[in-house]
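Handoff note, outgoing to incoming analyst
You'll be picking up this chain. Sequence as last confirmed:
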Amino acid sequence: MSKTNEQGNGFFKALSSVFASIAILVALGVSLVIFIFVMGNPANFEGGNPAGQPLPGNLLAMLYKGGWVVPVLMTTLLVVIIFVLERYIMLAKAKGKGRIDTFVREVQNDLNANKIDEALVACDKQKGSIANVMRAGLTKYKELKLDTVLEKDQKVLALQKDLEESTALELPMLSKNLVILSTLASVCVLIGLFGTVLGMIKAFAALATAGSPDALALATGISEALINTAFGIAGSALAIIFYNYFSNKIDRMTFKIDEAGFSLIQTFAASTK
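Most recent structure output, in case you need it:
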Protein backbone atom coordinates (compact mmCIF):
# COMPACT_ATOMS: atom_id res chain seq x y z
CA MET A 1 0.00 0.00 0.00
CA SER A 2 1.46 3.34 -1.05
CA LYS A 3 2.33 6.10 1.36
CA THR A 4 0.16 8.49 -0.66
CA ASN A 5 -2.94 6.35 -0.05
CA GLU A 6 -2.21 6.17 3.66
CA GLN A 7 -1.80 9.95 3.84
CA GLY A 8 -5.01 10.44 1.88
CA ASN A 9 -6.97 8.19 4.23
CA GLY A 10 -5.46 9.97 7.22
CA PHE A 11 -6.57 13.31 5.81
CA PHE A 12 -10.14 12.13 5.25
CA LYS A 13 -10.29 10.67 8.77
CA ALA A 14 -9.21 14.02 10.25
CA LEU A 15 -11.69 15.85 8.02
CA SER A 16 -14.48 13.50 9.14
CA SER A 17 -13.67 14.13 12.81
CA VAL A 18 -13.80 17.90 12.27
CA PHE A 19 -17.10 17.51 10.44
CA ALA A 20 -18.57 15.56 13.37
CA SER A 21 -17.64 18.30 15.85
CA ILE A 22 -18.94 21.08 13.63
CA ALA A 23 -22.18 19.21 12.93
CA ILE A 24 -22.93 18.82 16.64
CA LEU A 25 -22.23 22.51 17.34
CA VAL A 26 -24.34 23.64 14.39
CA ALA A 27 -27.20 21.37 15.46
CA LEU A 28 -27.06 22.81 18.99
CA GLY A 29 -27.07 26.40 17.67
CA VAL A 30 -29.99 25.77 15.33
CA SER A 31 -31.95 24.04 18.09
CA LEU A 32 -31.45 26.95 20.50
CA VAL A 33 -32.51 29.49 17.88
CA ILE A 34 -35.66 27.51 17.03
CA PHE A 35 -36.49 26.94 20.70
CA ILE A 36 -36.01 30.54 21.84
CA PHE A 37 -37.15 32.58 18.86
CA VAL A 38 -39.62 30.32 17.07
CA MET A 39 -41.21 28.12 19.71
CA GLY A 40 -40.83 30.78 22.40
CA ASN A 41 -42.25 33.57 20.26
CA PRO A 42 -44.68 35.57 22.48
CA ALA A 43 -47.23 35.48 19.63
CA ASN A 44 -47.67 31.76 20.32
CA PHE A 45 -48.99 32.32 23.86
CA GLU A 46 -52.05 33.82 25.49
CA GLY A 47 -51.41 37.41 26.47
CA GLY A 48 -48.12 37.39 24.56
CA ASN A 49 -46.38 35.86 27.57
CA PRO A 50 -44.25 32.69 27.02
CA ALA A 51 -44.72 31.88 30.70
CA GLY A 52 -48.46 31.61 30.15
CA GLN A 53 -50.64 29.09 28.38
CA PRO A 54 -50.14 28.25 24.67
CA LEU A 55 -52.77 29.50 22.27
CA PRO A 56 -55.30 26.77 21.45
CA GLY A 57 -53.87 24.35 18.91
CA ASN A 58 -50.46 26.09 18.78
CA LEU A 59 -48.01 23.19 18.47
CA LEU A 60 -44.88 25.36 18.69
CA ALA A 61 -45.96 26.77 22.04
CA MET A 62 -46.79 23.29 23.30
CA LEU A 63 -43.29 22.11 22.35
CA TYR A 64 -41.79 25.14 24.09
CA LYS A 65 -43.51 24.03 27.29
CA GLY A 66 -41.33 20.95 27.22
CA GLY A 67 -38.65 22.99 28.98
CA TRP A 68 -34.91 23.31 28.54
CA VAL A 69 -34.52 19.61 27.74
CA VAL A 70 -36.33 20.17 24.42
CA PRO A 71 -33.42 21.97 22.65
CA VAL A 72 -31.08 19.22 23.87
CA LEU A 73 -33.36 16.58 22.36
CA MET A 74 -33.74 18.66 19.21
CA THR A 75 -29.96 18.74 18.95
CA THR A 76 -29.72 14.96 19.16
CA LEU A 77 -32.48 14.59 16.56
CA LEU A 78 -30.76 17.03 14.17
CA VAL A 79 -27.42 15.26 14.69
CA VAL A 80 -29.07 11.96 13.79
CA ILE A 81 -30.51 13.50 10.60
CA ILE A 82 -27.16 15.09 9.68
CA PHE A 83 -25.22 11.85 10.06
CA VAL A 84 -27.89 9.82 8.28
CA LEU A 85 -27.44 12.12 5.28
CA GLU A 86 -23.64 12.06 5.64
CA ARG A 87 -23.50 8.24 5.76
CA TYR A 88 -25.93 7.92 2.86
CA ILE A 89 -23.79 10.17 0.66
CA MET A 90 -20.50 8.56 1.71
CA LEU A 91 -21.74 4.99 1.22
CA ALA A 92 -23.18 5.91 -2.16
CA LYS A 93 -19.75 7.27 -3.07
CA ALA A 94 -18.03 4.18 -1.66
CA LYS A 95 -20.27 1.97 -3.79
CA GLY A 96 -18.88 3.54 -6.95
CA LYS A 97 -20.46 4.65 -10.20
CA GLY A 98 -21.76 1.38 -11.62
CA ARG A 99 -23.27 -1.85 -10.35
CA ILE A 100 -20.82 -3.73 -8.16
CA ASP A 101 -21.67 -7.19 -9.53
CA THR A 102 -21.17 -5.99 -13.11
CA PHE A 103 -17.84 -4.40 -12.20
CA VAL A 104 -16.54 -7.53 -10.45
CA ARG A 105 -17.53 -9.72 -13.44
CA GLU A 106 -15.83 -7.32 -15.83
CA VAL A 107 -12.60 -7.41 -13.82
CA GLN A 108 -12.79 -11.19 -13.60
CA ASN A 109 -13.25 -11.51 -17.37
CA ASP A 110 -10.28 -9.21 -17.97
CA LEU A 111 -8.13 -11.29 -15.63
CA ASN A 112 -9.16 -14.52 -17.30
CA ALA A 113 -8.09 -12.97 -20.62
CA ASN A 114 -4.87 -11.71 -18.97
CA LYS A 115 -5.92 -8.09 -19.65
CA ILE A 116 -4.65 -6.52 -16.43
CA ASP A 117 -4.37 -3.01 -17.85
CA GLU A 118 -8.02 -3.16 -18.98
CA ALA A 119 -9.00 -4.30 -15.50
CA LEU A 120 -7.15 -1.32 -14.02
CA VAL A 121 -9.02 1.01 -16.37
CA ALA A 122 -12.31 -0.54 -15.20
CA CYS A 123 -11.31 0.21 -11.59
CA ASP A 124 -10.58 3.84 -12.48
CA LYS A 125 -14.02 4.15 -14.07
CA GLN A 126 -15.88 2.43 -11.24
CA LYS A 127 -14.21 4.23 -8.32
CA GLY A 128 -15.43 3.53 -4.77
CA SER A 129 -14.07 1.27 -2.03
CA ILE A 130 -14.25 -2.03 -3.93
CA ALA A 131 -12.55 -0.47 -6.95
CA ASN A 132 -9.83 0.99 -4.71
CA VAL A 133 -9.11 -2.41 -3.16
CA MET A 134 -9.18 -4.16 -6.52
CA ARG A 135 -6.90 -1.56 -8.08
CA ALA A 136 -4.34 -2.01 -5.33
CA GLY A 137 -4.56 -5.78 -5.75
CA LEU A 138 -4.28 -5.59 -9.54
CA THR A 139 -1.24 -3.32 -9.30
CA LYS A 140 0.41 -5.88 -7.03
CA TYR A 141 -0.84 -8.66 -9.30
CA LYS A 142 0.89 -7.07 -12.28
CA GLU A 143 4.09 -6.51 -10.28
CA LEU A 144 4.21 -10.10 -9.04
CA LYS A 145 3.59 -11.49 -12.52
CA LEU A 146 6.89 -9.94 -13.59
CA ASP A 147 8.75 -11.10 -10.47
CA THR A 148 11.22 -13.93 -11.14
CA VAL A 149 12.68 -14.19 -7.65
CA LEU A 150 9.79 -15.14 -5.36
CA GLU A 151 8.24 -18.59 -5.30
CA LYS A 152 4.57 -19.08 -6.19
CA ASP A 153 3.47 -19.43 -2.55
CA GLN A 154 5.37 -16.28 -1.60
CA LYS A 155 3.71 -14.36 -4.43
CA VAL A 156 0.25 -15.50 -3.38
CA LEU A 157 0.94 -14.48 0.22
CA ALA A 158 2.27 -11.09 -0.90
CA LEU A 159 -0.86 -10.48 -2.99
CA GLN A 160 -3.11 -11.57 -0.14
CA LYS A 161 -1.30 -9.27 2.30
CA ASP A 162 -1.63 -6.29 -0.06
CA LEU A 163 -5.38 -6.90 -0.45
CA GLU A 164 -5.80 -7.17 3.32
CA GLU A 165 -3.96 -3.88 3.85
CA SER A 166 -6.06 -2.15 1.21
CA THR A 167 -9.26 -3.49 2.76
CA ALA A 168 -8.15 -2.44 6.24
CA LEU A 169 -7.73 1.14 4.99
CA GLU A 170 -11.17 1.23 3.35
CA LEU A 171 -13.35 -0.34 6.06
CA PRO A 172 -12.91 2.37 8.73
CA MET A 173 -14.16 4.98 6.29
CA LEU A 174 -17.27 2.90 5.58
CA SER A 175 -18.22 2.64 9.25
CA LYS A 176 -17.08 6.15 10.22
CA ASN A 177 -19.61 8.01 12.42
CA LEU A 178 -21.85 4.96 12.81
CA VAL A 179 -20.78 4.94 16.46
CA ILE A 180 -22.50 8.34 16.80
CA LEU A 181 -25.79 6.88 15.56
CA SER A 182 -25.50 3.87 17.88
CA THR A 183 -24.73 6.14 20.83
CA LEU A 184 -27.64 8.49 20.10
CA ALA A 185 -29.98 5.50 19.85
CA SER A 186 -29.50 5.05 23.61
CA VAL A 187 -28.79 8.62 24.65
CA CYS A 188 -31.98 10.05 23.10
CA VAL A 189 -34.15 7.77 25.20
CA LEU A 190 -32.23 8.56 28.37
CA ILE A 191 -32.42 12.32 27.81
CA GLY A 192 -36.11 12.03 27.01
CA LEU A 193 -36.64 9.99 30.18
CA PHE A 194 -34.77 12.61 32.19
CA GLY A 195 -37.03 15.33 30.78
CA THR A 196 -40.06 13.17 31.54
CA VAL A 197 -39.01 12.80 35.16
CA LEU A 198 -38.50 16.56 35.50
CA GLY A 199 -41.95 17.19 34.05
CA MET A 200 -43.59 14.70 36.40
CA ILE A 201 -41.83 16.28 39.37
CA LYS A 202 -43.37 19.62 38.41
CA ALA A 203 -46.78 18.01 37.91
CA PHE A 204 -46.77 16.34 41.31
CA ALA A 205 -45.47 19.52 42.91
CA ALA A 206 -48.50 21.33 41.46
CA LEU A 207 -50.83 18.66 42.89
CA ALA A 208 -49.18 18.99 46.28
CA THR A 209 -50.05 22.70 46.50
CA ALA A 210 -52.19 23.56 49.52
CA GLY A 211 -55.82 24.11 48.62
CA SER A 212 -56.71 23.67 44.97
CA PRO A 213 -53.94 22.37 42.70
CA ASP A 214 -52.11 24.85 40.50
CA ALA A 215 -53.74 24.00 37.16
CA LEU A 216 -51.19 25.92 35.07
CA ALA A 217 -48.21 24.31 36.74
CA LEU A 218 -49.86 20.89 36.51
CA ALA A 219 -50.52 21.30 32.79
CA THR A 220 -46.99 22.59 32.20
CA GLY A 221 -45.45 19.65 34.05
CA ILE A 222 -47.49 17.07 32.15
CA SER A 223 -46.71 18.78 28.81
CA GLU A 224 -43.01 18.78 29.61
CA ALA A 225 -43.10 15.08 30.48
CA LEU A 226 -44.98 13.99 27.36
CA ILE A 227 -43.10 16.22 24.92
CA ASN A 228 -39.71 15.07 26.13
CA THR A 229 -40.84 11.45 25.95
CA ALA A 230 -41.98 11.93 22.34
CA PHE A 231 -38.74 13.64 21.29
CA GLY A 232 -36.62 10.97 22.96
CA ILE A 233 -38.48 8.08 21.34
CA ALA A 234 -38.44 9.76 17.91
CA GLY A 235 -34.69 10.39 17.99
CA SER A 236 -33.89 6.90 19.28
CA ALA A 237 -36.14 5.15 16.75
CA LEU A 238 -34.62 7.10 13.86
CA ALA A 239 -31.06 6.35 15.01
CA ILE A 240 -31.76 2.61 15.46
CA ILE A 241 -33.45 2.23 12.07
CA PHE A 242 -30.69 3.92 10.11
CA TYR A 243 -27.87 2.37 12.15
CA ASN A 244 -29.17 -1.08 11.22
CA TYR A 245 -29.76 0.00 7.62
CA PHE A 246 -26.21 1.33 7.17
CA SER A 247 -24.67 -1.61 9.04
CA ASN A 248 -26.41 -3.98 6.64
CA LYS A 249 -25.15 -2.01 3.62
CA ILE A 250 -21.60 -2.02 4.98
CA ASP A 251 -21.74 -5.78 5.64
CA ARG A 252 -22.85 -6.42 2.05
CA MET A 253 -20.12 -4.15 0.72
CA THR A 254 -17.50 -5.84 2.89
CA PHE A 255 -18.63 -9.23 1.61
CA LYS A 256 -18.25 -8.00 -1.98
CA ILE A 257 -14.74 -6.72 -1.23
CA ASP A 258 -13.75 -10.08 0.29
CA GLU A 259 -15.35 -11.96 -2.61
CA ALA A 260 -13.55 -9.85 -5.21
CA GLY A 261 -10.23 -10.19 -3.38
CA PHE A 262 -10.60 -13.96 -3.08
CA SER A 263 -11.40 -14.22 -6.79
CA LEU A 264 -8.29 -12.18 -7.61
CA ILE A 265 -6.06 -14.41 -5.47
CA GLN A 266 -7.54 -17.60 -6.96
CA THR A 267 -7.03 -16.33 -10.50
CA PHE A 268 -3.44 -15.36 -9.72
CA ALA A 269 -2.70 -18.74 -8.13
CA ALA A 270 -4.20 -20.60 -11.09
CA SER A 271 -2.28 -18.61 -13.69
CA THR A 272 1.09 -18.55 -11.90
CA LYS A 273 3.59 -21.40 -12.09
